[in-house]
Design brief:
The chain has 130 residues and is of the alpha+beta class. 20% of the residues lie in helices and 42% in strands. It has a domain of 87 residues: SH3 type barrels (Roll). The chain is elongated.
Length: 130
């Protein structure tokens, strides 16, 4: 067994290696400004100015609102780690369809369902608000 390992190490140390240069295309997570879409899954969710529950709320989101996910950040407070997501979107008022509220800020990750595509998020939002 040791002899096989030694032979593998010696074989990998050859000088005549060909260097391969990879030209990778921009993948969606690297080329787009958002990292997915979210649908708020609670009746009322506070959108914070900074990640963390003890910060000031900047707005709120209602169940079924679709938001773009722009950043994720882990926050550790008192030995408890939470995942917060920077979101941007529009909160549609359910009583008055002409009234909208701009959502911009941080939301606790457990308060949203995350999707890769906008079409998936729209389907989920429709299912939440029949």
């Amino acid at each position: 067994m040791l002899l096989i390992l030694l032979l593998c190490i010696l074989a990998s140390c050859r000088e005549n290696r060909e260097e391969i240069v990879l030209d990778l295309p921009m993948t969606p997570p690297l080329s787009r400004k958002n990292i997915g879409y979210g649908v708020i899954n609670v009746s009322f969710a506070l959108i914070m100015e900074k990640p963390g529950q003890k910060n000031q709320a900047s707005s709120y989101g209602r169940r079924g609102s679709i938001v773009e996910l722009q950043e994720r950040r882990f926050i550790t407070i008192e030995n408890r780690t939470e995942l917060w997501v920077l979101v941007a979107g529009i909160n549609q008022n359910q009583e008055d369809e002409n009234e909208t509220l701009r959502i911009q800020g941080w939301i606790l990750e457990t308060n949203i369902d995350i999707y890769d595509k906008l079409s998936q998020a729209r389907t989920a939002a429709k299912a939440m608000n029949p």
